[in-house]
Structure formats: structure tokens, C-alpha cells
Write a structure and sequence with these properties.
Blueprint (H helix, E strand, L loop, with lengths): L2 H5 L6 H4 L1 H12 L5 E3 L1 H7 L7 E5 L3 H10 L3 E6 L4 E6 L2 E7 L2 E6 L2 E5 L4 H6 L9 E2 L5 E2 L4 H6 L9 H7 L2 H13 L6 H10 L8 H12 L5 H9 L3 H4 L6 H10 L5 H8 L4 H10 L4 H9 L12 H11 L1 H14 L4 H12 L10 H5 L7 H16 L6 H13 L3
Parallel strand pairs: 2-5
Antiparallel strand pairs: 1-2, 3-4, 4-5, 6-7, 8-9
Helix pairs in contact: 3-5, 8-10, 9-11, 9-12, 11-15, 14-15, 14-19, 16-17, 18-19, 19-20, 22-23
Bound molecules: adenosine-5'-triphosphate (ATP) and magnesium ion.
The site of adenosine-5'-triphosphate has 11 residues, from α9.
Length: 410
């Protein structure tokens, strides 16, 4: 083997030979069909990072792929048949298998495709060079567009002319910054950024879901700040997320809390009240759970970090541990809570077991109060007393207070 060949071959890695992968590749090769890994798993494996879902490219038609996989009992989901993609599900993995294709015509995000491409043509329709490296099951690398060198230099480079590639599919503009965040040096590629700047006004043609998906993936990277700065400089952030006026707050949040919680990070990045948070959630088609969470973290923040331990427990009781913790972190990122106070409040939240109010309606009716509004009023009066007493009252104490209320004329 020559030096050049050595560089173009890697020792097959565990994910390439684990049973799930073997099952999929075996089913295809039993039909004489060639298959190579491509995209994220190849890129991440070459960098020694953990891999996620596995993308596979093959010259065989999607119908043939389905037939061969089903023959060996592998579950296949036709996730994107029109553009040549089927998903093989072999728990715990998902394999996205795409037929080699070329884009015949593109309109916005949609494309008419032909399945007569060779490996080089298939690489040419992919977004970035680092995503267009093929890896055969024996470890042989085929790198038609120079992705390996870019990967080593941490260059996120469009395959072909950036402006053309973005005009074909505007989503690539957002993908660019996301891949910059994951793999770039922090400065970006001047040609790519110029093309993004020129095409930023097209972002509103993307669906809210796609924008949300990309933003969330960007915020999930370990450090999205440099990419977000580039987006700001390039006029992309103002179009994709006009609410994003808290980059410094997000930077401090990441310093305080490195955990990659995308919604908490989003809450730090935006600076909005509840109404604007709801509008953002509607625009980006958030699920109800996400909408509620982003709204619950909007301004004004329902927490006073200065109160004593009893006041904090009351707030914790009302907000729940997760929301309390999120708000404390956001306030610290804003600069309103010192390091030591933050540690104290987080400790308090972590050690907190939510108390359970010991009475129910039947305790009131058992004392002869007929079912009706008065039951609710009495219960809530006892509840307020219990809360004001730092949740110390047990069932007997609460019952005694209830009896006192019933005996005391209103
Ligand atoms: P991730 O780790 O985020 O999954 P990925 O590179 O695998 O990264 P996917 O969105 O899973 O990204 O796409 C798989 C591959 O398909 C990419 O690596 C790229 O080659 C190609 N691809 C995906 N989206 C586009 C697009 N909009 N335009 C061109 N090629 C694309
Ligand atoms: Mg992927």
C-alpha cells in the first residue's frame, strides 16, 4: 500500500462493524449492491467524535434497497422516497440510506432529482465538503471534493459556489453557521459569509419548523457564540431570530452552565415578555411544551434572588425546581446574582423535595361542610397558612387550623 493509499484508508471502527451495521450492509451486499457511509458519521468518526445516526449512500434504487432490507427482516420506513431516502431501523440505530442522486432542477427547498448519479455527482449535490466524504465498509475513503483537507483545517466550505448552493436551498444558509459552530475556527469563510449576507432576506421563505430545528441544533453545540456573532455581523440573526438581543447574556450563561439545554439557551439569547415569547413560539411552530417553557422563562422573571431561605422555598414551591433553577441561571447570566449566591440558590433547589399539601376536599366535608364553593375557599385558606408557615404544618396541624376557620365566623 502506498503512503497516499494509507492516508485514504482507516481501520474500520466499532460502529462500522457492530451487528446493526453489519445487518444493513449484509442485506445490501447479498443483492450485489454497493454501499458507503457518508455525511455526519464519517465526518465525526474522522474527527474521533461520537457519531449519531448513520447515513449510507448507494447506487441502488430506493425500491431495490427496500426489497433487499425487507427480505432479511429489517424494518424500513420510506422517509423521503421522492428524493431517494429510506430509513432502516435496527435498534438502537437509524440508517438513512440514500440513492446516489443529482439535482435536476431546484425550486426553493424542493428539487427534482435523478437517480443516475455516480459518487462524484452525488458529492457535488451535498452541502459542505466535510459532509461529502465517502467511507467504504472496509475503511477506504473516497473524497471527491476535498473534504478531508477542509476537515483537518476546520474549514466549513460549500461544495461549489456558495451563492448558487444557497439559492438552490436557503436552509443551507442556516446549516452553514451550525456547522461553523461545530467544526469551524470561529471566523468563517469569507465567500460563504458574503453569500449568506446577500441571501439573508430569503430566510422568511423557510418554514418555521425548519428554522426552529436549525436554531435548536445550533444552540445545542457546545459553544455557539462565535457562530452567532457571525450571524449577527452578517445580518442573518436579525432576520432568522429578531428577538436575539442577548448574546452577551448567553455567553455568560454558557460560562456558568455548560450543559447544552437549547431552550434555556434560547431564553438567555432573546429578551422578550410573555406575549412576544408566545409569538416567537407560534412563528417557529414550537410544540405546546416548548411554548410553555419559553414563555415561563420570559420577562419579567418571577423570582427575587435576594429573599431568605423561606422565601426561596415558597418560590420553589410555586415555580417547581426546573423553572426555579432556569430563572436563577438566567438572572446570574444577566449579572443580577453573584457566583456565591448562585451556588447557594442552586444548592437549595437541588436539596428541595416538594412538600405535599396534607388536606383534600373530603377532609372539609367530613367536618360537616356541604360540598360547594365554601369547601374550596376553606381549603385554599388552609393552604395559604401552610405555605406561609414554611410548609411545616402536618396533617394534624392543618386539620386543627381548618377546624378553627370553620368555628370562627367569617
Ligand atoms: P448531523 O450530525 O447534524 O446529523 P449530518 O451531516 O449527518 O449532521 P444530516 O442533516 O443528517 O446532517 O444530513 C446528512 C447528509 O446529507 C449531510 O452530511 C449532507 O451531505 C447531506 N445534506 C443534508 N442536508 C442537505 C442540504 N440541505 N443540502 C445539501 N446536502 C444536504
Ligand atoms: Mg446525520
Amino acid at each position: 500500500m502506498t503512503e497516499d493509499e494509507k492516508r485514504r484508508r482507516i481501520v474500520p471502527q466499532p460502529w462500522m462493524v457492530e451487528p446493526a451495521t453489519r445487518a444493513v450492509l449484509g442485506a445490501l451486499s447479498a443483492g450485489g449492491v454497493e454501499a458507503r457511509f457518508v455525511g455526519g458519521s464519517v465526518r465525526d468518526a474522522l474527527l474521533g467524535r461520537p457519531i449519531g445516526d448513520i447515513d449510507i449512500a448507494t447506487p441502488a434504487s430506493p425500491e431495490r434497497v427496500i426489497e433487499l432490507l425487507e427480505k432479511t427482516g429489517i424494518k424500513v420506513v420510506p422517509t423521503g422516497l421522492a428524493h431517494g431516502t429510506v430509513t432502516a431501523v435496527v435498534p438502537p440505530r437509524h440508517f438513512e440510506i440514500t440513492t446516489l442522486r443529482r439535482d435536476v432542477e431546484t425550486y426553493g427547498r424542493r428539487a427534482r432529482v435523478a437517480f443516475d448519479a455516480d459518487w462524484a455527482a452525488d458529492a457535488a449535490r451535498r452541502d459542505f465538503t466535510i459532509n461529502a466524504i465517502f467511507l467504504a465498509p472496509d475503511g477506504t475513503i473516497d473524497d471527491p471534493v476535498g473534504g478531508l483537507a477542509d476537515l483537518q483545517a476546520r474549514r466549513v466550505r460549500f461544495v461549489g459556489d456558495p451563492a448558487t448552493r444557497i439559492a438552490e436551498d436557503v436552509l443551507r444558509l442556516l446549516r452553514y453557521y451550525r456547522f461553523e459552530a461545530r467544526f469551524g475556527t470561529g471566523f468563517g469563510d469569507q465567500r460563504a459569509r458574503a453569500a449568506c449576507r446577500a441571501a439573508a432576506h430569503l430566510l422568511p421563505t423557510l418554514s418555521g419548523e425548519r428554522v426552529a430545528q436549525e436554531l435548536v441544533k445550533l444552540l445545542e453545540t457546545s459553544d455557539p457564540i462565535a457562530a452567532l456573532h457571525m450571524m449577527e455581523e452578517d445580518g442573518v440573526l436579525a432576520v432568522a431570530l429578531p428577538e436575539a438581543r442577548g448574546l452577551n447574556r448567553l455567553r455568560r450563561l454558557i460560562e456558568i452552565e455548560p450543559e447544552t439545554d437549547p431552550l434555556l439557551r434560547l431564553a438567555a439569547l432573546i429578551n422578550v415578555d410573555g406575549k412576544a415569547a408566545a409569538a416567537l413560539a407560534a412563528r417557529l411552530r414550537f410544540s405546546n411544551t416548548w411554548r410553555d417553557r419559553i414563555q415561563s422563562l420570559s420577562q419579567p422573571w418571577a423570582l427575587d434572588p435576594r429573599g431568605d431561605a423561606q422565601a426561596q422555598r415558597r418560590t420553589l414551591y410555586r415555580l417547581g425546581v426546573e423553572r426555579y433553577r432556569d430563572l436563577v441561571l438566567l438572572m446570574a447570566a444577566e449579572g443580577g446574582v453573584s457566583q456565591s449566591r448562585l451556588a447557594e440558590l442552586l444548592d437549595l433547589a437541588l436539596g428541595w423535595t416538594p412538600p405535599v399539601f396534607p388536606l383534600a376536599g373530603r377532609d372539609v366535608t367530613a367536618l360537616g361542610i356541604p360540598a360547594g364553593r365554601r369547601v374550596g375557599r376553606l381549603l385554599s385558606a388552609v393552604h395559604d397558612w401552610w405555605e406561609a408557615g414554611d410548609f411545616r404544618g402536618d396533617r394534624a396541624a392543618c386539620l386543627a387550623y381548618l377546624e378553627l376557620l370553620i368555628c370562627t365566623p367569617a
